[in-house]
Amino acid sequence: MQPKDKIIVEGVSFFYGRNRVLNDITVNFTEHTITAIMGASGQGKSTFLGLFNRLWDDVADARMEGKILIRLADKWVSPMSGDLPLPLLRRKVGMIFQEPNPLPMSIARNMAFPLKLAGIRDKSIIEARMHQALEQAFLWEEVKDRLEKSALDLSGGQKQRLCVARALVLEPEVLLCDEPTSSLDAKASGVIEELLVHLKSQCTILAVSHKPEQVRRIADRILALQEGGILPMEAGYKLMDKNNNFKTGRD
Q1: CA nearest neighbour of 43 among 174, 248, 223, 233
Q2: More confident residue, 3 or 150
Q3: What pLDDT is stored for residue 195 in this prediction?
Q4: Can you give the pTM of this predicted structure?
């Protein structure tokens, strides 16, 4: 079976007021893969990631030109056209941020909260989804006896895995990760890396990273953002040096 496109981006430019951040980007993303997005600071990586779930929707003077299509439930939809209500889009296109952001409540309530927002009230469904998502996030065995304890008492790595599980409980088809290991130590980062590789069998992952070595370990494909455009990196790694400038060549 040939791999299928999951996301199509055609001629996309993005502006904050008169400032053009992204310039005429055209790129496709294949389902069940991890695409790493790299680039020096200020090149629009987080902005690009946020296009797919309209994270910029409430930003004054922000606008996009071009076309984005995402295949959800085997139907092509445009996040920009209102084909899906915004809450449903963000359930199907989940996002993990740099800093873990558990809610100041119990682990169980953290997991139940997005389901209740989605209108799910059946306790048996909530419990089953919670268990499954915590298992998927490699967290169940560590928290199964403390589900009623505060999520804020978890370690940094556990908090980030809880945030991943909280996204997974909604069964997303696309997972956007904005430097998900930047605040974690090497051991916790390794667990998140293993988790992402495991999850690509269930969803399509786009991950911003500043870590060339991490990208080599987890990515099926590498793209770089530079001066508002996409540079493909499959033909030869073009990685950042210690000053976040690009250097060319294979190691």
Answers
A1: 223
A2: 150
A3: 96
A4: 0.90
- What amino acid occupies position 144? K
Alpha-carbon distance of 11 to 180, in angstroms, equals 28
Q: How many CA atoms lie within 13 A of 211 on its CB side?
A: 19
Average pLDDT value for residue range 22-46: 93
- How many whole angstroms separate alpha carbon 220 and alpha carbon 44? 21
| 154 to 74, 141, 162: CA distances (angstroms) | 37, 13, 9
Share of the chain above pLDDT 70, in %: 91
Q: N- to C-terminal Cα distance for the chain?
A: 33
Query: Could you give the percent of the chain with pLDDT greater than 90?
Result: 77
- 244: number of CA atoms within 13 Å, CB side? 10
Give a three-class secondary structure readout of 140-176: HHHHCCCCCCEHHHCCHHHHHHHHHHHHHCCCCCEEE
**DSSP helix, strand, coil percent of the chain (3-state; round to 5):** 35, 30, 35
- Which residues does 104 contact at the CB level (< 8 Å), separation at least 6? 150, 151, 152
Q: Which residue has the tokens 């505060």?
A: 150
